[in-house]
Amino acid sequence: MDKKHLPKKIDELTSMQIQEKMEDLSRQIRHHRFLYYVLSQPIISDAEFDKLYRQLEELEKEYPSLVNTDSPTHEVGAAPNTEFKQIRHRVPMLSLSNITSFEELKKWQERLHRGIDGSEDADKFSNKQLSYVSELKIDGLSIALTYERGTLISGATRGNGEVGEDITLNLKTLPTVPHSLSLTNKAGKKNKIPDLLEVRGEVYMPKESFAALNAQLSEKNEPLFANPRNAASGSLRQKDPRQTAKRQLAFFAYFAYVIDKNIVEPTSHYETLSMLDDFGFTVEPNRSLAKNIEGVQAYCDKWADKRHALSYQTDGVVIKVDDRELWKALGSTAQSPRWAVAYKYPPEEAESIIEAVHFEVGRTGAVTPVAWLKPVKLAGTTVKRASLHNADQIERLDARVGDTVVVRKAGDIIPEIIKVEKEKRPIHSKALHYPDHCPSCQNPLEKIEGEVVFRCPNTYGCPAQLERRIEHWVSRDAMDVDGVGESLIKQLLAAKLIASAADLYHLTKEDLLSLERKGEKSADNILAALKASKERPLPNLIFALGIRHVGLNAAEKLAESFLALSCLAEATPEAISSIPGMGPAISESVCDYFAQKENRQLIDDLAKAGIEMSIQDEGAKPISQAFAGRTFVLTGTLTSLERSEAEKAIKKYGGKASSTVSKKTNYLVFGENPGSKLLKAQELGITVLDEPKFLEMLEEASKK
Ligand code: IVH
Known about the structure:
Layout: H1 12-38, H2 46-62, E1 86-88, E2 98-99, H3 102-118, H4 122-125, E3 132-138, E4 141-148, E5 151-157, E6 163-165, H5 168-171, E7 196-204, H6 207-219, H7 228-236, H8 241-246, E8 250-259, H9 269-278, E9 288-290, H10 293-306, E10 314-321, H11 324-330, E11 340-344, E12 349-361, E13 366-378, E14 381-387, H12 391-397, E15 404-410, E16 414-420, E17 446-447, E18 454-455, H13 463-474, H14 486-494, H15 509-513, H16 520-533, H17 538-544, H18 552-562, H19 565-570, H20 573-577, H21 584-595, H22 597-608, E19 631-635, H23 643-652, E20 656-658, E21 667-670, H24 676-683, E22 687-689, H25 691-703
Helix pairs in contact: 1-2, 17-18
2-(butylsulfanyl)adenosine binds next to strand 3, strand 4, strand 8 and strand 11.
């Protein structure tokens, strides 16, 4: 900023404060524009937006010399791109050379020393003891983010290393991709914001989100993703950022270039990672600095098994020389830098034997072949069953009972058979035949045009479908009936004590005691859990009905719009599809559901059993466990919602709102004029969230 143009009345300090205020307003405006134009999901009213905009305009009018050339008052709202433009990387995005053993690790260390000795700067570095940074290698895809004076201006895929695709709008939907660099670090000190910062890192899909996505795709009979990496890649290349936003992707930053003649770049990689932390990026927390190669080896050993317990998939360890001065001396080959290497863990595969194949009937009648395997340890758990997905897959693999097979876990969670070892096949084995009748009710199966699965059309008469529907009814995100699970439901159906979800509410203590292995205490607990479930919020009730395509997120929107199940039951397809985010598939399937007399009867029975069927006090009961076990403290004034609304929102997703900061606090949310709680939280190293970050977390939780 050119100070000589400042009006005299503004002294140094106030000009800084005004600039900060302008920056802050600009950040908020950009964020809300993005939510409005790109995601079509505004979280503030037009009037509130206009207020922010006017505040900035007025400040700019009063202090024209302080106006930034890239102020949002100079731009129109951003509409999504339909084609990805190409972006040339400032510095090529190389890949890493792989090693798979500790001998190779030692050889790499020797090469490093030889490289240093042969370099022009040999004198400077000779006899230097090298330190190494070990980072878990996340299995996702690498991207590059560019920040100009603290604002994210572009995000690109790696592409061919020289040129990548411009996926800025999609990347902006990730809560862990900051739209602007944090002005203060965790200790509350001011960050130096460089003219240009290029941040590189990995976008990944957490294992749980991957499993949920594949479950949704399978429900819609769409092709599944083979692993979280493919799922992340497909999700980032969506033409519509709103689709990317639904995919629950996350970003770990692992590297940065600072381009600013007034700011000295960190000379150590470990410090670069801390700098990224300070700027508000998420850096994989298990990184470690080792003084020698033995320390690296110990790290690789330590994480070989432990990594399976993480919520994201890792396939190795990336080892980097810590001293960035040495990076220049060591240089790169055409493909990879010499100062870093990837230690890859052996693939997690195991051999087992197919002991049986069962054709299982799902909630919507889809018949899925499942191989029951000789139990085998794989990536941290014992695997006993693997889905064979559908008839096409059975034919492709030609898997048979008695076959020796190779099993792998897709994304460390879903076991799948990747190969049949035909040479080990017993002589009299028989090819599997997909049944043409339902294994549960014997009804002929149907194959619907364009679908890969066969379905049992006997929706209301098929015992297996009924059993699955009741299992879904009691599940956590549905009516959450503790103590009622698969085996109890089976027993109750077999004893003819229930014939629908509504019958659960007429069970007596005597009924439960008549069952094998049910004692007084557990019977009392089950009855109490059933009673409590009658009060579940409307979104969970709608989800519990098991309407095709209606997940918890859609159920929440339907509940908000129709307020009572009776109103939803009478809604027209047009009324449903006019709700933002509700497509024709949902509206059709909701209307179909309520058109069936069996479903109407169930709802009548549920009402008679005393199930609450309209919106109650929304904030009082959690509708999901997205924030389970996490305590939030609020301080300062939030601009887009009242404190009580923020507390309600936290509780809605299973979190706890507390008024005092302690070691048990997980997040401190601060608004304008925060009090001493912010300082205390920073002293205790608690994650602090400004309002946009908190809103992003709420948005993210609403998608779970
Ligand atoms: S550094 C030039 N650090 O692994 C060095 N890469 O096999 C660039 N990856 O393309 C990469 N975690 O997609 C680095 N902590 C980490 C990483 C990491 C995952 C991926 C990245 C890279 C690939 C190389």
